[in-house]
Write a structure and sequence with these properties.
By secondary structure, the chain is an alpha+beta fold. The protein has two domains: about 110 residues, Rossmann fold; about 130 residues, Tumour Suppressor Smad4, CATH 2.60.200. It is about 15% helix and about 40% strand. It is built from five helices and 17 strands. The strands form three sheets. The protein has a six-stranded antiparallel beta sheet, with no helix packed on it. Strands 12-11-10-7-14-15 form a six-stranded antiparallel beta sheet, with no helix packed on it. A hairpin with a 2-residue loop joins strand 8 and strand 9. The protein is elongated and about 55 Å long. It starts with a strand and ends with a helix.
């Protein structure tokens, strides 16, 4: 029987107490599996919290969407865990440049750039050191992993990527010029650099999952294959199936 550690979002305290009544919580250090109770945002927080531990995360949805989570059921947890299927994910590493220096952060969903004021952002896009768009006038732009492709990326009309696709999605957010540019699919090894034009007049923030850096001048984004996290899913409801099903949903 696997040793378990339970963690929960603040509004899932009742479910957390119930799980701890049903199962021993061995604590984070001794656990074989971390069970996260909450929504997708809490799953991302849990992935970041357990970076480098090698512990797989099994999420149960007590949030709104719960795309990254399993269905919440209090019964038969051990049986579900023993039959669970694994999904290994790699984050993006963001390096944000500001007047104060460099800041690094990891993102399992996406790195997004967003205008800070009423002025549209002006952003140059380079891929592997080659300028691809000299000036994108927009509300923002993002780079998404396959894991995050059904989140903000999909809301911005970006493509849904299979979880094992060796691709990243580069997606504009409300692009004004070039008006007809809808984004690009990049190999997962691609190095993307964003350079902010007129940054004093048109300030831009950079967000890696839920970590924000304001007033950036340039942002470098690349997948970090040295970092890996494992998520567990109920048999027959793995992340591959969820992403495929999402493409045929209403």
């Amino acid at each position: 029987m696997p040793a378990l550690h339970f963690t929960a979002a603040p509004d899932a305290a009742e479910a957390l107490a119930d799980m701890r009544r049903r199962h021993k919580d061995t604590g984070a250090e001794k656990a074989d599996i971390v069970v996260a109770l909450g929504g997708d945002g809490f799953m991302l927080q849990t992935l970041h919290a357990f970076l480098g531990t090698g512990k797989p995360i099994y999420g149960m949805n007590l949030g709104s969407v719960g795309f990254l989570m399993n269905e919440y059921r209090a019964d038969n947890l051990i049986e579900r865990l023993e039959a669970a299927e694994r999904a290994v994910v790699h984050p993006l590493r963001m390096t944000a440049h500001t007047a104060k220096g460099k800041t690094e952060a990891l993102a399992f969903n996406e790195v997004s750039l967003l205008r800070e004021t009423r002025q549209a952002a002006k952003i140059a896009i380079l891929v592997d050191d080659k300028i691809r768009i000299a000036e994108l006038i927009c509300d923002g732009v993002l780079v998404s992993t396959p894991t995050g492709s059904t989140a903000y990326n999909l809301s911005a009309h970006g493509p849904i990527l299979p979880i094992d696709a060796a691709l990243l999605a580069l997606t504009p957010i409300s692009a004004f010029r070039p008006r007809r540019w809808r984004g690009a699919l990049l190999p997962h090894r691609a190095r993307v650099r964003f350079e902010i034009r007129e940054s004093a007049k048109r300030p831009v923030s950079a967000v890696a999952d839920d970590f924000e850096v304001r007033d950036v001048s340039a942002i470098d984004v690349a997948e970090d294959r040295t970092v890996a996290m494992t998520m567990l899913y109920d048999a027959g409801h793995n992340l591959d199936e969820r992403i495929l099903a999402e493409q045929f949903s209403d």
